[in-house]
Design goal:
This protein has helices spanning 35-39, 71-82, 117-128, 135-138; strands at residues 5-8, 21-25, 61-65, 90-98, 107-115, 146-153. It has 154 residues and is α+β, with helices and mostly antiparallel strands. The strands form two sheets. Strands 1-2-3 form a three-stranded antiparallel sheet, covered by helices on one side. The chain has a three-stranded antiparallel sheet with strand order 4-5-6. Strand 4 (90-98) and strand 5 form a beta hairpin.
C-alpha cells in the first residue's frame, strides 16, 4: 500500500528544508496502512504543535534519498526506479523516541518503521553508484524507512 512519490525541499519549513530530497507518500486515500487513523488516536492535548505537530495525509512520507543537489540526480533516480520493483510498504514496528535535534524542548516522535524490500533495493542501487565516503550523504539510515506520525511533548 502507499502511493505516489516526489521530490521536496527548496525552502519551506520542515520536510527537507532547503536541500532537495526525494520521498514516497505512504498514506493513500483509503488509508491502507492505517497511519492516519493511528495518528488521530493521539489526543490533541499531547501534540507538540510547535515542533512538528500531527502529520496530515499529504505530509506522510518516507524519505528515499537526501541531498539531491545535482541536476543529474533526478535523472539517475528515474533510471533506477524504472528498473526497481514497484514499492510495497508494510508496517514493521511502532516507535516512540526522543527527537534529539530539537534542543529547546523535550519532544518525542511517534512513528512507524517500514518493511520494504523494494525501497531498500532502490536505496541500495543508488548507493552502489556512489563513492563509499558519499553514500551516507544520500542514504544515512540502514533501515528500510520510517514515517513520523505525531510529535508529542515529553
Amino acid at each position: 500500500a502507499g502511493g505516489g512519490s516526489g521530490v521536496g525541499g527548496k525552502g519551506g519549513k520542515g520536510g527537507g528544508g532547503k536541500v532537495p530530497w526525494s520521498f514516497c507518500h505512504v498514506c493513500d486515500d483509503p488509508d491502507s496502512l492505517g497511519l492516519l487513523a493511528l495518528s488521530q488516536k493521539v489526543p490533541d492535548a499531547l501534540v507538540d504543535w510547535r515542533h512538528g505537530g500531527r502529520r496530515q495525509r499529504d505530509r506522510m512520507h518516507s524519505t528515499v534519498l537526501l541531498n539531491m543537489t545535482e541536476t543529474r540526480h533526478l535523472e539517475r533516480l528515474k533510471r533506477l526506479a524504472e528498473s526497481t520493483a514497484p514499492l510495497q510498504l508494510e508496517v514493521r514496528e511502532l516507535f516512540c523516541q526522543r527527537v534529539d535535534r530539537i534542543k529547546d524542548a523535550e519532544v518525542y516522535c511517534i512513528g512507524i518503521g517500514l518493511a520494504s524490500e523494494s525501497l531498500r533495493a532502490l536505496k541500495d542501487a543508488w548507493t552502489s553508484e556512489e563513492q563509499a565516503e558519499r553514500r551516507q550523504t544520500h542514504v544515512p539510515y540502514d533501515s528500510e524507512g520510517h514515517v513520523s506520525l505525531v510529535y508529542v511533548r515529553g
